[in-house]
Write a structure and sequence with these properties.
Length: 300
């Protein structure tokens, strides 16, 4: 995060916001700057990618599902907008530790033996490490002592849209993001890679709420996508994973998505629409027969 902070200081904060006498490395200044950067970044990522997903990926026929709530999109957005500033408070405390040099983030690829190989390996390590911790944190949030207080607000959306991706109770949202921040304090990670992964995980969180249930056949056993996560919202006790199905399989909470079996929410909507059309057509034929019978009835 120090890369972003340095750019913001150079082009914006130092020349236009803060007095020249306030050092850039002052902890209070860094805290304020990180709060601004984190919130602006979170809102921009959320609205940009969730809006793209909503208009170009999300299947709007899902809004006809009986479990889709009235004014749901507006409610999802308002919930997210209100939660993100609170989520940013503990997040910034971790960013501050990174900026002040307490993490294992590094600048140069050549700082370690086999630098490029290690960089690529760190990406895979990051994904598997965070997926493992998120699984157990997420599953823990479903415990009856925590669920009602923390995680239930996110499960209001049984048929989520991309805008539900960040609609959490603030503590819930921070806890599920915590593995991303823990990783660079435990393992070496390149700063640019860390920023890229941070953006990626936000996009992925949006994608598993996007209602696009298509997954390449070869990846279906391994990737936890929107089909898996929508079933989690609807059925509660299954598919807690973030990226992969590995920990759900290990933990006994994996369920093959209903959408892959032909009885998912889209299938339900299509069936409901077909039945409605069939009933409407049947009533139309019946009315036509009655009308024709009336027309042919001999006059007295």
């Amino acid at each position: 995060m120090d890369l972003v902070l340095n750019i913001a200081d150079y082009y914006f904060f130092t020349p236009y916001i803060y007095p020249a006498t306030w050092p850039e490395d002052d902890i209070f200044r860094q805290t304020i700057s990180l709060l601004i950067i984190t919130n602006l970044g979170a809102y921009n990522l959320y609205f940009f990618f969730a809006t793209l997903s909503y208009y170009f990926v999300y299947d709007h026929s899902l809004m006809k599902h009986p479990q889709f709530l009235k004014n749901q999109v507006y409610r999802e957005i308002m919930h997210s907008v209100k939660s993100m500033p609170w989520i940013s408070l503990p997040t910034v405390s971790l960013f501050l530790l990174e900026v002040r040099g307490y993490s294992r983030l590094y600048d140069g690829v050549g700082e370690f033996p086999f630098g490029w190989f290690r960089l690529l390996a760190s990406v895979l390590s990051f994904l598997f490490f965070t997926d493992m911790l998120i699984y157990w944190i997420h599953r823990g949030l479903h415990h009856r002592l925590l669920y009602k207080r923390l995680h239930k607000p996110h499960h209001i959306w049984k048929i989520p849209t991309p805008f539900a991706s960040h609609a959490f109770h603030p503590l819930d949202g921070f806890l599920q993001s915590l593995p991303y921040h823990i990783y660079p304090f435990v393992f070496p990670l390149h700063k640019v890679v860390y920023l890229g992964l941070y953006i990626l995980v936000n996009i992925w969180t949006i994608s598993i709420h996007d209602g696009d249930f298509r997954v390449p056949q070869s990846l279906r056993p391994f990737i936890n996508g929107s089909a898996h996560h929508t079933d989690h919202h609807m059925l509660f006790d299954y598919n807690y994973g973030q990226y992969f199905t590995l920990w759900d399989r290990i933990g006994g909470s994996f369920k093959n998505p209903s959408s892959f079996e032909g009885n998912g929410p889209l299938d339900y909507v299509k069936k409901m629409t077909e039945e409605k059309f069939s009933n409407h057509a049947g009533n139309g034929c019946k009315n036509e027969k009655l009308f024709n019978g009336e027309a042919k009835r001999p006059s007295t």
